[in-house]
Design brief:
The chain is α/β, with parallel strands linked by helices. The protein contains 9 helices and 7 strands; from the N terminus they run βααβαββαβααββααα. A hairpin with a 4-residue loop joins strand 6 (154-156) and strand 7. The longest helix has 19 residues, at 93-111. It is elongated. The protein starts with a strand and ends in a 6-residue tail after the last helix.
Length: 244
Amino acid sequence: MKYTICITMGDPSGIGSEIAVKALQNRSIYDRCVPVVVGDKEAMLDAIRFTNAGLKLNCIKTPEEAKGEYGTIDCVDLGLLAPGSWEYKKAQKLCGETSFQYSVKAIEFEKEGKAHAVVTGPINKEAINMAGHHFSGHTEIFAHYTNTKDFGMMLTSPSLRVIHVTTHVSMRDACDIIRKNPARVESAIELAKEGMRLLGVNDPRIAVAGLNAHCSENGLFGDEEALSIAPAIEKCRAKGINVD
C-alpha cells in the first residue's frame, strides 16, 4: 500500500510551487507514496516552466483521482488564480486567501480519509492576515480545523526533538505567557512525552530550557524559572516523566 500525501502549494507569490516541482522530480518519491499537490494550476504550470522541469500536470478534483506516476504531477486545482493575477515576492491579499484555502482543503481531504498526511508549502503570515484569516501560522490553522485544543510544534532530527512552549508570538508575549501560565509549561512537557511515544520512544529523556540568562541565577536575572518552569518540571516528575 502506498500512502497518499497531500502537498499544499503555499503562498503563490513565494517558493512553494517551485519547491513542489523540484521535489517531485525525484523518482524515488513515487516508489514510496502518491504525492498530490493541493493548489492552483496556473502557479504550478508557471513553476514547471521556469524550472525547466519537463514534467506534466494532471489536474484533478480529489486525491483519489491521482495517477501517482513519475513524470506527472497530480494537482488538485482549486482554480483560485487567473493567469497573471498575482505577483511574485510580494505579500498580497489574494495570495493569503489562496494559500489559506489550500491548507483547509488538504485538512479536509485528510479528515475524509482521502489522504494519509499533509505536507505544507510555505505561507506568508502577513498575507494570511491581510485576507482576514487571523492565524499566526500553520500550527494554529491545523489545530483549529482539527478541533485540537492542546497542541505544540515539534521539530525533529535523528537525535533530537524540540517542542515549543510558545509558538508564533513576540518575545515579550512569550515571557508573559510563561510567567502567567505555568500550566502551559507542564502541558508542553506532557506533549513532548506523548509525541515521543508516537515516534516509538516510550521513556524519553526531556530537558526543559531556561528562559532567562543563566536560568536567572536564582532570581538575579528574572524569576520565571522559579515561578513557572521549575514547578512545572516537579509536577511532571511526580507523574513519572523523566524531565530536568
